[in-house]
């Protein structure tokens, strides 16, 4: 309501200023000059022309059952992305459309949802709320900043350059590239942003997987501070690998735009390992059974020894 009153007052002030400009311009040939003055006032009131600044915000949340390593990965990403808003854990895993309502409540246009399964498998949902698209990825080889203990360092709240290495011109890679750009690229309008660019967020596509790395930009060699500038990169962390599973047209659902035919779920992989271990056990037991039957046949064919212990000491 106060915003509506303020807008109406602004419109009324613009009308009065336009009317005063026409009166000062006069009649007759001066009408054109008055119209030009009024148009100039309108343009000044409307503000500078050009593209509007991007005001993307990212909602970050997780499901129940996340482990310590998963929580530390979320904390590292929250530190790297000052335009994120963290929410509490989501109780349900079936009604993911509720995340769109949470993003609307927090005024967020992007969503990062970490879904934990069986306390060991981690999946990452990236979505453009509320209309989509969205992608589901399997997260592997997670290494946090505290675990790596790299020598690189960057300012907390600084902006990072988003870099893409490898071929990103496939049928679905362009969609993933656009989503990574919107989610991991910090807009200039972020409140917690510091006006520095001192690290690079790199996404490399190799062997059907997306490899994430974070590097610090060093302009001078620390061993020769008085020498000429020699830019270099030093890794900071964290590290993780994403395997795209599906891309949906909507946000957390809808028609499937892409399905990875080479993806095998971790549960199926573990089941195959258990089946292989069980096959070894069955082969060993079958060999023991065959040896026992062979011994029985030998005893039946040869007969009982006259010098056997139970006959001698009977």
From TrEMBL:
Provide the protein's localization. Answer: Nucleus, Nucleolus
Composition bias (Low complexity) maps to: 34-47
Sorted UniProt keywords: Nucleus, Ribosome biogenesis
One MF annotation (Gene Ontology) recorded for this entry: rRNA binding
What Pfam families is this protein classified in?
Answer: Brix
SMART domains from the UniProt entry? Brix (SM00879)
Pull one GO CC term from this UniProt entry. nucleolus
Q: Does the keyword Nucleus apply?
A: yes
A GO term (biological process) for this protein?
rRNA processing
What coarse category fits the chief subcellular location reported for this protein? nucleus
Protein family membership: Belongs to the BRX1 family.
PANTHER family xrefs: RIBOSOME BIOGENESIS PROTEIN BRIX, RIBOSOME BIOGENESIS PROTEIN BRX1 HOMOLOG
Report what the protein is called: Brix domain-containing protein
Its source organism is Kwoniella newhampshirensis
